[in-house]
Amino acid sequence: MDALFHDFKQAHYIRNGPLLADTLSPIALPRDPNRLRVFHSQSDDYSIASDVKYQVLHYDKSIDITKAEANAWVDIYIAYWKSLGPILDAENVPLEADWSKIYDRWKDVANSLIKGYSSGNFPSWTVPCLYVVGRHLRIFAIKADESARVASGGVQMKTGGFQDDIASDIGKNEKLEDAARVINRIFTLCISDRASLEESRKWALYYTTNLLFKTYFKLNSISLSKNILRALSASRTDMPVLEAFPKSHIVTFKYYVGVIFFLEEDYKQAEESLTEAYKLCHAYSHKNRELILTYLIPTRLLTTRLLPSVSLLRPYPRLLTLFMPLVRAIRLGSLHDFDAALSAGEPEFVKRRIYLTLERGRDICLRNLLRKVCLHQGWKDDGQMRKVSVSEFVAAVGYSERGGRPLGNGEYLDRDEVECQLANMIYKDLMKGYISREHSVVVLSKKGAFPGTGI
Amino acid sequence: MSLHGAFTAVPARQVFARPQPSSPLPSISQTTKAVDTSQTEKPRREWPEPVRQYVQRAFAQENHLPDVSRQEMETKLKEIIAESASSNTLHETDWANLLLPQQVIQAGRAASAIPKPMPTNAHWGNAFPSVSAQETNASANGVISKKRKSSEWENSQQAQPPWRNTNDRNVLEDRISYPDKRQRNDSPGKGTSKSQYHLDSRKKRFEDSKSRDALPVQPASAKADTVMEDGPVVGQCQDLEKKYFRLTAAPNALLVRPLHVLEKTLEFLKKKWRKDGNYSYICDQFKSLRQDLTVQHIKNEFTVNVYEIHARIALEKGDLGEYNQCQTQLRALYSQNLGGHPTEFKAYRILYFIHTCNRTDMNDMLADLTAAEKKDVAVKHALDARSALALGNFHKFFQLYLGTPNMGAYLMDMFVGRERLAALSNICLSYKMDVKLRFITEELGFESDDESARFICEHSGQAFLEERDDGVRLLTGKASNYFEPAKQAAFRRVDIKGQI
């Protein structure tokens, strides 16, 4: 108990947020591995209130906090002490951990902290407490939901109430949804702070936002993130500039914003945010760079039609296996290899939500193939109008789709389908020219028939 | 009190204060014109003074009853006067002492709370449209040959256990009238609005369920009063049909049908659907069927069957809201491996996500599919359609559209229009000079040149069609960007009802 409150007072003397946040950590600190146990064992349900009161209010009056502030801290530490019971039990016997109880107790800690802030008791340097409490609230919620799922053996069927149907909203993520609401309150707490910037909780905004994004992504309700972004952009004018925030907050924020745009198929904005995140990201944050690239590569494939080089991917073996087969197929213009690579990587692509974007890379692959057909005819960029027979393209597409294998029994070339794909190339501006059905030829533009490829 | 009366008399008088001899009963005809046109077709006439006073009394504030709405009262009032007029008793009736319409309604409600001793079959004829009307409806639907009907589906897929077949039709028919006694005996006039009718029947139901408890005919009524709050109900109701009401209190076992009755109900409803095709009736009955299953916690193959059939019927009738409700339930039921046709409905889900352009859900859907499911005909078809659209391969997409398995065509119809616009846009931009209309017909999956020409004209592209010696041509060179705005508009509005 002494050690914990020693830090509490020390943090207040030097206004050190992270040190204060450490006193609310549910995980023992490496420098003091026994602190939680000692703290918990030094009191009991009956005397904890008076113990904490004594420590905060009476023991040492030298620190500069108001009575209201001290009382708010008393409530928080009482809730914190109560949460330690089940947490330490879980540490002792991990298999019998009652995560749901831990979550509920930890939520009490979060709520009393929120209460302290909303009644205006705490100065802004204490916001790291919100980080540590919010972060663990999310972790405990996920564990509680996991164990609930295991206990119910999969789907939960709600049977109470008056609903007409068997399965109502399947409460798979009950606690995490609840946690999202609590974290959202923290967000509101920060964004609605009207104090001057030096003393504002707005400095906690991006950390909290990131925590919310993470939660919404996990809950598969990514659309909710849009509300947060809207709230942020609405109060942009009276917020510190983005660059003034810690880089770690900004990188994560930009990453999530980029992914949200990516999922909305707004690739231009996605590219912008992801590129910023990539540039800001610490060179040794290997994991984060890998995550950013996972979305930046498919994005750039569509926006700039650029493929990643091997040297870019080499430090990330996972990305190398993920993207290289596709990249190789696109370079070669091999539709067969592309289809094979896409379907081989499908489970992984779908999991990362990049499948539907990568799939469109087939257009680039096809473009490269058609370009090869033209080059094969001895093209030079001499400003002449070019005509290529549709049959040439049909033959090439068929050959490429079969991976060079001759036409098998019962197989046939679907001329109309290839023609449709050619029309698509023109429509998407990957190829300049037009199709003449009358003469069954593609008439290609004199200059830049395949924009951005040199011919 | 007198002050009160003097004040409230004003609004009623106001209406009559403008004497318009040419217009009979202005207040009634004005307020209910929209609902009832039969009144206005009748010859105009002067109403006798006692009738006018009666009307005035009916509208007077002090005679207003809280549980009778103004609209209901007006309808009843009109009924009373019309009845009297048609029987030529306008001058004989003692209007001064006649019950006011609101009082008649109240009395009617009280009377209907006591069930009639003998149900009559006559009620059937009124409750549902005549068979002939349904038949013409069904034959009109039958024209679309590429789509399967939900009723066909049941015939071919659900083998009926022998004991179901042995059910004598007469036995079923005998039972079907029971719910009638729960209907209002002052059955709503033509003028009553539908929602008002539902409100009434709802109200009615609560009165009624209480009175049913008290009936000596029903066994174990005392027991039923102590239905446990949480546990599953054990149904005791033997009726085959039951109108749907949303529960607002713990279910009453006397009104819930047990599984073996519900099984017969399903068979009965299937026959009824094939015969009459009355969707609003079927939907209502299925909802009550689902409710009975839920309150009894019945989760088995039968449950799956019920939801599947309801989903197919809703799909056929384009009732996306109900369809989505069933889909949500089916998804949960399939995850418990209770049988049914999971791949058929997964294919529908994929097609639905194409319709709503929901990439996030589509991605989750792809993540959920197993390798075996992806090989299933219906699922593969839906996936192929999805990827064809993703790559703009409209040729392949419309080929797939023409060969849609099960009832997927009903879903595809919802977005085929916008995809045709997309393809048309595409063709106009990439083909120069012109193409034969026949080409459009074939590429865009139309059934005839007429149909494709009509589609182009519907999007005011008639100027780009030109008749030549060898047939009609579409002048794509001139129409380059013409269909692009229409295409973009079509993709913008995707309405989502009861999203899964």
TrEMBL record, chain A:
Stretches assigned to the PCI domain: 251-449
Ranges in a coiled coil: none
Record-level Gene Ontology MF annotations: double-stranded DNA binding; RNA binding
Domain of life, source organism: Eukaryota
InterPro entries: Csn12-like (IPR045114), PCI_dom (IPR000717), WH-like_DNA-bd_sf (IPR036388)
A Pfam family it matches: PCI
Gene3D superfamilies documented for this protein: Winged helix-like DNA-binding domain superfamily/Winged helix DNA-binding domain
Family note: Belongs to the CSN12 family.
Protein name per the record: COP9 signalosome (CSN) subunit
Organism of origin: Heterodermia speciosa
TrEMBL record, chain B:
InterPro entries for the chain: SAC3/GANP/THP3, SAC3/GANP/THP3_conserved
UniProt feature, compositional bias: Basic and acidic residues: 39-49, 166-187, 197-213
UniProt-listed Gene3D superfamilies: 1.25.40.990
GO cellular component labels: nucleus
Residue span, SAC3/GANP/THP3 conserved domain: 242-314, 324-459
Stretches with biased composition (Polar residues): 153-165
Domain of life: Eukaryota
Protein name listed in UniProt: SAC3/GANP/THP3 conserved domain-containing protein
Region of interest: Disordered: 1-49, 135-224
